[in-house]
């Protein structure tokens, strides 16, 4: 009888342990608040932008793909070659600017904590963002490059397929990183997300936006 | 008594005018030309304005050197303002210079043109 009681108790303990020790995503993410903004609104003045240490996360659930988030927060890599705000990481020698290596995110969460943090981050959504608007499918890579490189010159600021500027996020692996619906919204109106972003809003037609969204989604 | 009422009324009018004028100044140009230049322009044109920003090595066409009095002097203020507002293609130059019309107000663009004139130590060509 006692043996049976112990066995039942042990089983109950085994079942209880995972939930008792399940990571609290909100608590983990709260620590990220020392660098990332976890509540809106976005910076509205240049002074506020210059004080930004890391990208805003208060709409992370709209912006990112969850699978990418889980991997990234276990082992962060450099996405913005000149830091979150490039203007804070330049050195002028003579008349030429160069990038001063920006600080890297030191977060290295365990797989379990990363999953919990990503679960929480995915709840931080902008309810106004339209979903289902990115129409992914077959597209002309040549036409996309003509638009992106020749017409809009996105590579002036972004590294695209290994070549391009450094003041904005690299497009390497961007298709894994970003939710296509968020890309659709950002490309149409970057200032909606970041009023003082140093990317000029383009007046693009629907076909051009979809072409850019498809090209970006294909950069895995 | 009448004098006191008039002087109080005048004080209210003066205070209202000061508030309105202050408001107008802020809405006309919310950011300084230097702050705008350092955020939007420096990435390509460089901190020194010489066209040697961090993105410059990756551009097919070298960014304009804002400190070059000869090249800048050949451009009218209206032409420079149009390039900032509508992008390089609007003035027959590189499409790599984007339009900033959604980022900057007309007043802010005017202030940046004035700043560029300080950088080149030149005046603009006649229209």
Describe the protein's architecture and organization.
The complex is a heterodimer of chains A (220) and B (127). Chain A is mostly helical and 220 residues long. Chain A folds into two domains: 23-121, Orthogonal Bundle (Cytochrome Bc1 Complex, Chain D, domain 2); 141-217, Cytochrome Bc1 Complex, Chain D, domain 2. Helices cover 43% and strands 5% of the residues of chain A. Chain A has helices spanning 2-20, 25-32, 46-50, 60-63, 66-72, 111-121, 141-151, 174-177, 180-188, 190-193, 206-217; strands at 90-93, 96-99, 159-160, 163-164. In chain A, the strands form two sheets. A two-stranded antiparallel sheet of chain A has the order 1-2. Chain A has a two-stranded antiparallel sheet with strand order 3-4. Mean pLDDT of chain A is 92; it is low at 13-20. Chain B is an all-alpha fold. Chain B has two domains: 1-29; 31-120, Cytochrome c-like domain (Cytochrome Bc1 Complex, Chain D, domain 2), CATH 1.10.760. Helix content of chain B is 55%, strand content 0%. Chain B contains five helices and no strands. In chain B, helix 2 crosses helix 5 (106-120) and helix 4 crosses helix 5. Chain B is globular. Classes of the chains: A mainly alpha (220), B mainly alpha (127). Chain A binds chain B through residues 45-47, 49-50, 82, 86-87, 90, 92, 94-99, 150-153, 155-157, 163-167, 191, 196-203, and chain B through 30-31, 35-36, 38-40, 42-44, 46-48, 50, 52-55, 58-59, 67, 87, 94-96, 98-103.
């Amino acid at each position: 009888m006692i043996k049976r009681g112990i066995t039942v108790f042990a089983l109950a303990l085994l079942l209880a342990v995972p939930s008792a020790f399940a990571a609290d995503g909100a608590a983990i993410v709260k620590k990220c608040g020392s660098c990332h903004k976890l509540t809106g609104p976005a910076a509205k003045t240049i002074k506020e932008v210059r004080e930004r240490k890391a990208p805003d996360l208060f709409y992370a659930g709209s912006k990112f793909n969850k699978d990418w988030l889980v991997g990234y927060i276990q082992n962060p890599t450099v996405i913005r070659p000149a830091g979150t705000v490039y203007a804070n990481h330049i050195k002028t020698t003579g008349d030429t600017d160069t990038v001063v290596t920006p600080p890297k995110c030191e977060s290295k969460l365990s797989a379990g904590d990363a999953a919990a943090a990503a679960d929480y981050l995915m709840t931080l959504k902008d309810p106004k963002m339209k979903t289902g608007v990115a129409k992914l499918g077959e597209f002309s890579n040549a036409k996309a490059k003509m638009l992106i490189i020749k017409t809009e010159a996105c590579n002036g600021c972004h590294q695209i397929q290994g070549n391009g500027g450094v003041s904005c996020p690299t497009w390497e692996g961007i298709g894994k990183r970003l939710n296509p619906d968020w890309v659709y919204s950002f490309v149409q109106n970057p200032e909606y997300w970041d009023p003082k972003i140093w990317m000029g809003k383009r007046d693009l037609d629907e076909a051009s936006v979809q072409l850019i969204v498809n090209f970006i989604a294909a950069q895995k | 008594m009448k004098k006191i009422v008039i002087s109080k009324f005048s004080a209210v009018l003066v205070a209202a005018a000061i508030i309105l004028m202050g408001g107008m100044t802020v809405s006309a140009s919310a950011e300084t030309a230097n702050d705008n230049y350092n955020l939007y322009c420096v990435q390509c044109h460089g901190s020194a304005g010489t066209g040697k920003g961090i993105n410059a090595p990756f551009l097919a066409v070298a960014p304009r050197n804002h400190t070059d009095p000869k090249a800048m002097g050949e451009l009218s203020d209206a032409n420079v303002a149009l390039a900032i507002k509508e992008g390089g293609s609007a003035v027959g130059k590189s499409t790599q210079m984007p339009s900033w019309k959604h980022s900057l107000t007309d007043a802010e663009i005017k202030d940046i043109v004035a700043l560029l004139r300080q950088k080149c130590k030149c005046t603009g060509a006649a229209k």
